[in-house]
Amino acid sequence: MKLVTAIIKPFKLDDVKSALQEAGVQGMTVMEVQGFGRQRGHTEVYRGAEYTIDFVPKVKIEVLVDDGDAVPVAEKIMEAARTGKIGDGKVWILAAESVYRIRTGEAGSDAL
Amino acid sequence: MVAVSLRDARLSLLTQTSLRGTAYGAALAQLLDDTLTDLYGEGGQSPTAVVALGSYGRRELCPGSDVDVMLLHGAKARGRTAVGALAERLWYPLWDASFVTGHATRTVKESLALADEDLDALTAIVEARHVCGDDALTTELVGRGRQLMERRSARVLDALAGAAERRRVRPGPVAEVLEPDLKDGAGGLRDLQALEWAGYALGVRGIAGLVERGILSGDDAERLAVARECLLDQRVALHRTTGGRSDQLALQEQDAVAVLVGASDADALVHELATAARDVAWIARDVWMRVAEDGSAGGAADRILAEGVALRDNRVTLLYDYEVTALRVLEAAAAAAEVDAPFDRTTLVQLRDMAAPTWDVWERAAFLRLLREGERAVSVFEALDHEGVLVRLVPEWGHVRSRPQRNAYHRFTVDRHLLEAVAECARLLDLADAQPIEFDGIAARACRRPELLLLGALLHDIGKGMPGDHSDVGARTAEVFARRIGLDSEGREILSWLVRNHLLMADTATRRDLSDAAVADNFAAACAGDAERLRLLYLLTIGDSRATGPAAWGVSKAALLRDLFVKAGVAIERGAATAVATDRREALCEMVGKDAATAFLDQLPDAYLLAFDAEEAVGHVAMLREGSAIRCHPAEGHVTITVVEPDRPGLLATLAGGLTVCGLNVTEAFLFGTAGGVALDVFRATDPYGRLSDGVDRVEATLRDALRGEIDLDRRVADRERDYRRTNGEKGPVEVHINLGESATDTLVEVHTDDELGLLYSLARAFAALELDVRVAKVHTLGERVVDVFYVRDAGGAKVEDPARLEELRATLVERLRA
Q1: CA-CA distance, B483 to B491, in Å (whole number)?
Q2: Which residue in chain B has the smallest CA separation from A51?
Q3: Strand, coil or helix: B812
Q4: How far does Cα B780 stand from its chain's mean position?
Q5: Three-state SS at B573
Q6: Which tens digits make up the pLDDT trace of B570-598?
Q7: For residue B128, pLDDT beyond 90
Q8: CA gap B627, B646 in Å, rounded
Q9: Partners of B638 in the beta sheet?
Q10: Which of B508, B556, B560 to mutate to test the interface with A (most CBs of A within 10 A)?
Q11: A110 and B CB contact within 8 Å
């Protein structure tokens, strides 16, 4: 099993969700996060008061998939989340050693 | 085996679902009494007694309750072994039958020593109940326990009041959180028990004693009894459903619990619970406040807070010789929030006699002052609600009162959420004066009309519980409310806009690409290019989100909102609304050519380009070229009918009649006259009878026939009126308001009446008969009532101002509507 993790722009969440549902992904976990990449934060001025955005709001999603599905899912996410502008985010894939469904105790692919 | 038969008997009670609430508790207590009495038999050598404590003592056992029981004895050290053997004989069968027991074996002296140190032990003793054995022992224990409680009165009351206050925070009020704790929530069973204990601490017998002492009214005691039955009924049902001991009425259990208590559905269940818990919470809080100040108050002179309203013994009091007008109630309410003091008990009763509000400038000001107090206004609103005054001030409140919200974001019922939103918005306004000034404080300080923020917060979800989209329905409801309280026209418009769009900013900020300049520009246009609307909506969005619950607010959403706020603000300063109009003008030029576009737009008012986009305009240009055309275009949920026709008196009446004959219900009409004497009329309508499902040709054909005069509209409309007449005969009032101040060029005629088939037709015919030209018509339907607004001019194109003419107009309209 693999854990696919992606950091995306918040407004792209609905698109990514639909794309993954179409691809047959059964579930995902979503978190509101903040951070910076090469985009960095930025400074805005409002009525003379300067305010700095050190960390940019992003959404982090995690999807557990079978080994063979990881790369296609990552590609789906990239396709759906891409705007072509700076700050589109990243996707990465990690190996998940074991997976269990808590209610039934099922393990491995059955638990996905 | 005693344990086996006890277990079977317990299971039998559990499965008899007709045994509910107190009846179940009494039956289980009786079963345990009988079992323990049998097991006790002759007792031991020294005197002993079996005593029931806690919910067992009160006969309020629920399926998952602990059974608290004590073996009381008088034995000295030597007799203890025998007593221990007796205790084992009593307790083991209970354990074997899977009861969770709290058990003890003590002498009276030991019990009292423990009770002196531990409040829980003390409260258990004062309510202890004798089961079997030597009742002299029980009587001594209870008697001395109550004396001890009375001696420790101040400390006990203080501790009970403190615990009650903590329950308001966690787990929170039963009536207002969506997954309430029936036992420990404020307004739950623990509050009821605490009132009983308060009675013993004051040296009287529980709640009944509090009534005798005049601390509670008989009415209060009755409400508490009803609430106790309701709470126990639901708790027994909850335990039956889950098979567990948890007292939290989780959303997922509510359907099953509703079935067990005979409620029609989960909403009805929660509503019944909220009504009961609201009574308990309110009465309990009142008692704690009164008890806390007992003796400390008195002597100080009255402080006058407003005319006929004084602060007496730290209670807001209506002075007796004044009439209870709405103004006095509102001023008392505002004062109560400002000085953060509760109402006097007699005053609360007087509030119920409040005369109907007139909503003059003073009443309105007092109401707004109350809202401005935010957090401190919440308990005042609770008091007004408890006495039935709130729904007379805000009749719309009835729809949202104790209404549950079933989604993952909300923590509170709708009414409590609205009050929380007011409190959050008041807090944001406070930031305007904070030092050092924060970002949101700058926005708050710039607000020209902060009262609209508070009213918006109070009403933003008022449409929940009424059919239709809650933002749309809410906006219309807010408009009616604003009109009733006499808000000026700009205020009404902004308030209704705020309610309609209260989700727009959060949706845009979280779902649109803010780095795309068009997003900010369009948002600025949605704010009508008005920086004040942007500020109010920004602050309302924050207040609403914070009042919703932790899932709806966080640094991430805050940053996105702020970003949109700044970018839309910049767009407004650039003149984005004008920019949208300019963009549309340019797009139209590209599509139809510069000359044609200019010629077309020059004959229309500026507002045209804000109401229609370039593609719609292209359609209009083409239709105008034809000189006479009809297009019917269905879209999601409504239909747009566009008519181009040589202008003539009575045109609107003919079209309205034709649409009525087609079964369409007009909701909005834009009427434009061009320089060439051709009218461009656009109607938005709903299709309540689904007439358009088989095509729009019939509508176009019918309108064409009507324009040619080939349809006897009077007769056809009358036929339909007969067929679709509403069955309930009572007619609502008819109101006609004429306003000369709102527009420099037109006379505004506003009609409030019952929604009736053919209403627009009938009104348009009246205008035509008076030779008045209707330029814009707005039709709002609110359930069975409508508010229609017409912008009219006379045949010469001038505003109608002559008083005699206006009176004739009013009389004609009223006469037609009454007919």
Answers
A1: 10
A2: B439
A3: helix
A4: 23
A5: helix
A6: 888 777 667 777 888 888 998 888 888 88
A7: yes
A8: 7
A9: B635
A10: B556
A11: no
Contact B442 A9 (CB under 8 A): no
Cis peptide before B436, with omega less than 30 degrees from 0? yes
Task: Show contacts of B627-633: CB within 8 Å, 24+ apart.
Answer: B627/B678, B630/B700, B630/B703, B630/B704, B631/B700, B632/B692, B632/B696, B632/B699, B632/B700, B633/B696
- Tokens 């409504």 appear where? B638
Our CA-based measurement puts residue A105 at a distance from the nearest CA of chain B, in whole angstroms, of: 22
Distance of CA B433 to the CA centre of its chain: 30
DSSP string for residues in B468-537? S-HHHHHHHHHHHHHHHTT--HHHHHHHHHHHHTTTHHHHHHHHS-TTSHHHHHHHHHHTTT-HHHHHHH
8 A C-beta contact, residue B68 and residue B102: yes
Q: How confident is the model at residue B729 (pLDDT cuts 50, 70, 90)?
A: low
Residue B324 touches partner A, C-beta closer than 8 Å: no
Residue of chain B minimizing CA distance to A46: B566
Lowest mean pLDDT, pick from B32-36, B404-408, B652-656: B404-408
CA distances from B61 to B95, B108, B239, B241, B576 (A): 16, 25, 11, 16, 67
Quote the CA–CA distance of B482 and B394 in Å, as a whole number.
11
**Interface membership of B435 toward A (CB under 8 Å):** no
A32, B556: Cβ pair inside 8 Å?
A: yes
The pLDDT value given to residue B297: 47
With CA atoms as reference, report the closest residue to B376 among B425, B347, B339: B339
Whether B309 and B366 have beta carbons less than 8 Å apart is answered as no
pLDDT-based confidence at residue A6 (cuts at 50, 70, 90): very high
pLDDT tens per residue, range A29-60: 999 888 887 766 666 555 555 556 677 889 99
Q: How far apart are CA B591 and CA B614, in angstroms?
A: 8
Chain B positions in Cβ-Cβ contact with residue A87 (cut-off 8 Å)? 515
Number of residues in chain B: 819
| Closest chain B residue by Cα to residue A52 | B559
Encoding tokens for residue B459? 């009403």
- The per-residue pLDDT for range B66-94, each reduced to its tens digit, is 999 999 998 777 778 888 889 989 999 99
Tokens of residue B465, six digits: 């519980």
Chain A residues in contact with B447 by the CB 8 A cut-off are none
**Cα separation of B322 and B330, whole Å?**
14
For residue A81, what is the nearest residue in chain B, using CA coordinates?
B513
What is each CA distance from B382 to B281, B283, B389, B461, B632, in whole angstroms?
10, 11, 10, 18, 51
Which amino acid is located at B59 in the chain?
R
A56-65 and A2-8 strand pairing: antiparallel
Asked if the Cβ–Cβ distance from A11 to B559 is below 8 Å, we say: no
pTM, entire model = 0.66
Residue A24 burial by Cβ neighbours in a 10 Å radius (0-12, 13-18, 19+) = exposed
Decide if B256 contacts B411 (C-beta within 8 A).
no
What's the CA gap between B751 and B779, in Å, rounded? 10
CA distances from A81 to A17, A58, A84, A87, B396 (A): 10, 12, 9, 10, 44
Q: How far apart are CA B440 and CA B478, in angstroms?
A: 26
Distance from C-alpha of B145 to C-alpha of B148, rounded to nearest angstrom: 5
Contact (CB<8Å) B569/A33: no
Does the beta carbon of A33 lie under 8 angstroms from any beta carbon of chain B?
yes
Q: What is the CA radius of gyration of chain A?
A: 17
CA distance A19 to A22: 5
Give the integer Cα–Cα distance in Å for B603 and B598.
Answer: 9
Token digits for B243?
């098979």
CA distance B249 to B262: 16
Interior/surface letters B25-59, b for 16+ CB within 10 angstroms, e for the rest: bebbbebbbebbeebbeebbebebbbbbbbbbbbb
